[in-house]
Amino acid sequence: MPVQPSDATGGGLARTPSGVLVPAGIDPFHRTLHHVAPSGLIGQTSQTSGMKRLEAISGKTVGAENLWMGQTHVAASTASGNHHHGASETAIYVVSGHPAFVFLDVEGDEPVEHRIQTSPGDYIFVPPFVPHREENPDPETEAVVVIARTTQEAIVVNLDGLDWSEVRIR
After folding, report:
1. Domain range for residue 118?
2. What's a Pfam family this protein contains (predicted)?
3. What's the structural domain count of the chain?
């Protein structure tokens, strides 16, 4: 006898207009894939000086509930402002250029500004609340990265410096 699918809460099934049985707790909007072409990216999102963020996957664009994903562009010879992303974990994939990610390493005897130099294909993980900035030292080429966050909105808290004195955990 075939196993019947059930939703995450162990509830029943619902029949779609085409006759397919799906978990009852999944609404029609969340039963389909959503395509966002480059022309569909949204520039009206939280920004930090020296960079441009474009929203691709979010509540506004596809109805995401727990994820934000987009692109960040850092112009040639530019450094972003210092910032953090609140309680959100951030994953970064370097598409083009050689951006550097700068943070204050506070785990030694003295705080030390630390730079992670990247290349296309590299990944960076930014834990919640960590003050950092992006820099693009290349004098001619824009750096482009893809960002994914564990919060549905693009949380950005701009800071004066890389130290933790302005970080407020709520």
Report:
1. 36-166
2. Cupin_2
3. 1
